[in-house]
Amino acid sequence: MYDWAHTLSDYVEGITHSVCTLEFEVHRPLYDWILDALELPEPRPHQYEFARLNLTYSVMSKRKLIQLVNEKLVNGWDDPRMLTISGLRRRGVTASALRAFAYNIGITKYPSMTEMAVLEHTMRDELNRAATRRLAVLRPIKVVLTNYPQDKIEKLDAINNQEDPNAGTRKIPFSRELYIENDDFMETPPPKYFRLRSGGEVRLKYAYIIKCDEVVKDEAGNVTELRCTVDLDSKSGGPTAGRKIKGTIHWISAAKAIDAEVRLYDRLFSVPEPDSGGDFKSFINPNSLQVVTAKCEPSLAGARPEERYQFERLGYFALDPDSTPQKQIWNRTITLRDTWAKEAKR
Fold this sequence. Notes:
CATH 2.40.240.10; seven-stranded mixed beta sheet; single chain; about 20% helix; alpha/beta; Rossmann fold
């Protein structure tokens, strides 16, 4: 009955090329026989078979995708971890990136497995050229610049997109109290750690060089605040900005920061071929979604859902449809680098 319905619906709807996956190749003689037996006039459809797209670290079977949705292992068909069109769109993947991916991998007549890294590379390549740069701190730790004026708010120039000379610049506020990433400070760092350390210096991007003088901790021994001094003669772009420092980190003015929920999406499965054997659901990546409250630069208050953004040094992000003027929600589209390649080498 499926073959009967397939053939006639193609004909009635005026389908010229009925594109199927390889398992339908043995059905084609029946497809053609039905058209001949009914003596249907031309033009008639023709069935073509090609290999289905298979991506590592994912499942493509609708039956298995339905299981993920019905068992609430994902948050619906448009969950950004799902390789559905609605899921990819919500994650921030552009239509042009998907078209470039499809064009580059082509089509085959034999079963194959495409590396997820190929899709991710295509996404990064497009977003690197198109995404607007902004500053955000995902896991903030406070920095107090003890020698910077208490009430001063300085406006510094920041580049909107290094890949696009026409993108221009914007103003970002700089103040006595800042936020930096928790990962950008270590008291006793390993060799070749070029971020901030106790007694060490680092450049704040678009701003000044700072030195960590004191580390403040809570009763549990967790770092809660860094007290630093700023080299006021080291302003980026200024006449005396030439002092060389190996490390550069991003930051946010505490006085002007806006809070936002950031959803850090990653690959849904932790193994390359989750449905090759056993229960595919047992291979779900427990870290495929992490939610943090981030500090963002104030210009992101005017962010648009259709625009794509790079949070500098962190990755590419898109505004989620659930965002409101009172609460922004950001979805991570992709990281800046392929972190899975490093894990594979280990």
